[in-house]
Every structure is written in structure tokens, then in C-alpha cells.
Specification:
The protein is of the alpha+beta class. Helix content is 13%, strand content 25%.
């Protein structure tokens, strides 16, 4: 059985959900390497993180952080 978080598949909804639970500073199960839309590659070390170059916010729920494909963009400096 999967958690209810697995139904969140849009970046802004994920950010809003994670922040509402007070978990935005949690570490993902794995520190994934992200290739941002701006071309920057960075290490995703919190479940809500911004690209160091352009500020694009990326997020994933803690329970879905095992898979890099669950990390979604939410917008420039969304969080």
C-alpha cells in the first residue's frame, strides 16, 4: 500500500504539502543528483531545495524520496 502522498504529482502541490507538515528540511532517503532546467547539476539534500544557480524549487515528499523521478519542479523560488 502506498501513502496518500503518492497522489501528489505537481511540484507546487508537493511543496505546499511538505511545508504544511513541517517537513521541508528533512533529508530525502537518498541524496539525488538533479539536472536543473537551467543546466546546473546539484545535489538534492533536502526534500524541498532550490537550484543554486537559478533558484528553481524542487520538491518530493519524504515517503517518495527513494526515486529521483518523484522529484518535481515547482517554479523559480517557489519556496
Amino acid at each position: 500500500m502506498s501513502c496518500s502522498c503518492s497522489k501528489l504529482n505537481e511540484g507546487k502541490a508537493i511543496v505546499d504539502h511538505v511545508i504544511s507538515k513541517g517537513k521541508e528540511n528533512e533529508k530525502p532517503l537518498y541524496a539525488h543528483e538533479i539536472s536543473c532546467e537551467c543546466g546546473e547539476v546539484f545535489l538534492f539534500e533536502k526534500v524541498v531545495a532550490n537550484c543554486p544557480k537559478c533558484g528553481m524549487t524542487y520538491a518530493v515528499t519524504p515517503c517518495n524520496s527513494f526515486d529521483k523521478n518523484n522529484i518535481k519542479a515547482a517554479g523559480i523560488k517557489y519556496a
